[in-house]
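Tutorial, part two.
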Amino acid sequence: MTEKTQALEVFQELYLRHPQGAVAVRAAVLANLDNGWSHEPEREEKSAALGNDDMLALERAATPNLPGVSLWMFSAKDASYKVSNIVPSKSGELGVAGYNAALQHFIQSVIQPASESTPLTFEVTGALQSIEDWAGDACAKALKTFSSLANKSTGRTHPMDEKRWLLFLLVAHREKSTLESDRLARWLIETESWPLEIAYELASEYDLSRTLLKLYDQTR
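Running the prediction step on this input gives:
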């Protein structure tokens, strides 16, 4: 079993499902609003005017311990709902910790009670994730091999570093890795201590290479 590397704090994601579909998800959430959470139909109307007619907009008033926030949810193709964003009601940013705290408050105050009184089910992703969680074991192994042996001041310019980098790209393509370039850059910088400029250059090259390899497969 592959040993996971240092985990990074990430924005959690919440998915809601109901046997009767997205309409039932929406109804279950609205029927269980509590602890300061309220419905914001005016925001939904504005969104619908822009062509987004599947949005659920909620708001939570500020408390002595928590800032006021606005929460948006959109329905997905599998008839579920997903929390798409949480932002402070006033100016500023929540950051990862603040975002996750607001999401947990929403789950405890609204979603858990709804799941106890209706067939609503929910799934929330972890707040700490490793490169294996993002990329898959095989892809993460190839990436860590490249990163651990590369000269971080020169990127992949050395022939051996370039070979290991290209092997990582091929493994990512072969395994259909879901690793995204922004997460690759973050891992390189925060976990592996790569210089910012080189890390972003590698992430940009990763993005382009994945697109090119995918196009190549489609045109063979």
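The beta strands are 8-9, 14-17, 37-39, 55-60, 69-75, 81-88, 121-124, 128-129. In part three we will examine how such features are distributed along the chain.
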